[in-house]
Each structure stands twice: as C-alpha cells, then as structure tokens.
C-alpha cells in the first residue's frame, strides 16, 4: 500500500512540474499581455453645432460616429476581459447637432459612473470634440480635480485644434 501511495505522489509531482514548465513557457511567449488588467472607458461624443462642419465629408459627426464604431469593435477585440457592455445616454439613435458642448457636464456624468468602479481597474474618459470653446455651468477645474483624486484619466481628441 505504501508503494502505491509513493508511486502516486511521484507521478502527481512529475505531472505538476511538467504543467508548471509548460505554463512558464506559454507566459514567456506572450510578453505584452498583462494578466488581471480591467479597463473601464467612458466615451463622450460632441453633438454641438461645430460637428456640422464639413471639413470631413459628409460632416464631422458622421465621420466621428463611423470611426468610433470601428474603435469600439477593436477595443473589445483587444481587451477580452473587460465588461462587454455599452451604455447609451442619448434618447434617440440620431440627434441633431445644436448648441455648444459642455465638457464639465460630461465629466460629471462620467465621474458618477466611473468612481464606483474598483480601484484596481483602469478608469478612463475619452472626449471626441469638434468645438474650440465650451459652455460650462461652473468652474471646470474643480471637476478635473475630483477626477484626478478618483484616478480617472481623461483624453481628448479635438477635430478643430488650431
């Protein structure tokens, strides 16, 4: 009986060692993969009058939407561990572009969503803006300070930068 137990332990230890060696080999082949990386991204698309400009054909809004569709597909494809969900805060599938953009309002909406995400995850906001100016209800610097305290990274793609 003792010989059978010893034989079983030896075979089990050998199999474990081989599995560990194979696992190390697999991880060595994937140097750019980060295990356990969770990402939460909030995308804000400008719907102000500036998005009607036709410097991109047919206009900035249409081009931005088409490129965002491609970006979202690639984002989910390259980050398979992220929660696969999209939140749409617009009431219609297409809204007319009017008025001016408010970065502060968008920041506050994103902050309300992202601040509840786990601290170990990456929390990001991406702004796609077509305007040069914004119409914010209060001091945007205070909102940016709160985003920084909550470790929320903000990036801007400006279509009308000078």
Automatic annotation (TrEMBL):
GO cellular component, one term: transcription factor TFIIH holo complex
Domain named Ssl1-like: residues: 44-80, 91-162
InterPro entries reported in the protein's UniProt record: Ssl1-like, vWFA_dom_sf
GO BP terms, alphabetized: nucleotide-excision repair; regulation of transcription by RNA polymerase II
Pfam families in UniProt: Ssl1
Coiled coil: none
Protein name from the UniProt record: Ssl1-like domain-containing protein
């Amino acid at each position: 009986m003792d010989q059978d137990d010893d034989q079983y332990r030896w075979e089990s230890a050998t199999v474990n060692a081989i599995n560990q060696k194979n696992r190390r080999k697999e991880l060595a082949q994937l140097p750019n993969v980060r295990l356990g990386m969770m990402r939460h991204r909030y995308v804000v698309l400008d719907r102000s009058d500036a998005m009607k400009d036709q410097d991109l054909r047919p206009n900035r809004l249409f081009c931005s939407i088409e490129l965002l569709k491609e970006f979202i597909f690639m984002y989910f494809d390259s980050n398979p561990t992220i929660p696969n969900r999209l939140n749409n805060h617009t009431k219609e599938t297409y809204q007319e572009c009017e008025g001016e953009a408010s970065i502060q309002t968008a920041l506050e909406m994103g902050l309300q969503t992202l601040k509840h995400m786990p601290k170990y995850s990456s929390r990001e906001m991406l702004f796609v803006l077509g305007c040069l100016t914004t119409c914010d209800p209060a001091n945007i610097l205070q909102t940016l300070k709160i985003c920084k305290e909550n470790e929320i990274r903000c990036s801007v793609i400006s279509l009308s930068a000078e």
